[in-house]
Design brief:
The protein has helices spanning 3-12, 17-29, 34-41, 45-57, 76-93, and strands spanning 32-33, 61-63, 70-73. By secondary structure, the protein is mostly helical. It has one domain (3-93): Arc Repressor Mutant, subunit A (Orthogonal Bundle).
Length: 94
């Protein structure tokens, strides 16, 4: 799968462009500190931390227990399964 396709899929499922870019970056590069990720993606740290918190709340990115924390992306297939579960629950609630 191409990074572009993954990025567009995540955006179409409801992630912001920035959140999707961070996920793709972490999935491609492996665990990274917030400082290194912000530097590589040329994002302000505040914006990055907000997006990382968002991604963590959705179960898409996981922090390590070490300090400074290193953030890892969950496998893409699991991310799709999480989104599918949420969409099914939303549909059932309607």
């Amino acid at each position: 799968m191409s990074n572009y396709w993954i990025l567009k899929t995540l955006v179409s499922l409801g992630l912001s462009e920035t959140d999707a870019e961070i996920y793709v970056y972490l999935a491609k590069n492996g665990p990274e500190t917030a400082k290194d990720t912000a530097s590589s993606l040329r994002l302000h740290r505040q914006q990055l931390y907000r997006s990382l918190k968002n991604l963590q709340n959705k179960g898409i990115v996981v922090p390590s227990k070490e300090r400074p924390a290193r953030f890892s992306a969950v496998v893409f297939e699991k991310v799709l399964a999480l989104f599918l579960k949420v969409k099914i629950e939303q549909q059932q609630n309607l």
